[in-house]
Amino acid sequence: MKVVRWIAAAALTLISLMDVGSALGGGGHSAAVRVLAPLLGLLGLAAVYGMLRWRPWGAAAALAASTVDISFVVTETGTISLGVEGELASEVTHTLRLGLIAT
Asked: How many independent structural domains does the chain possess?
């Protein structure tokens, strides 16, 4: 269980640091993204602290700071393509954001 906790902490730390770095500009981000993304990054770093220090709120905070984005296309034949092989060149893509919560 400790290994899983450390792997999750490492991944969440890296993503949180990338969110904090988005405040530096570049990449053409809007002002809202440059303000809100670092706040999410700081929330993620606080969640890592709570998770590694075995605080009661640590796991719930880590789940709250985590989402998974899936981009996909519904093709003309009605199938769903994830674009793994680069076939989403000129298609309209959709994004599904999955968030996890602690119960």
From this structure: 2
Using a cut of 0.90, tell me whether the model's pTM lies above it. no
Q: Are residues 82 and 36 located together in one domain of the fold? A: no
Beta strands, E only, the chain:
67-74, 80-81, 94-99
What is the phi-psi region of residue 91: left when phi exceeds 0, alpha when psi lies from -120 to 50, beta otherwise?
beta
Same domain, 84 and 103: yes
Residues 39-77: pLDDT tens digits?
878 888 888 888 888 888 887 887 777 777 777 787 777
Torsion, Cα of 83, 85, 87, 91 (10° steps): 20
Query: What's the rounded Cα separation, in Å, for the pair 18 and 42?
Result: 11
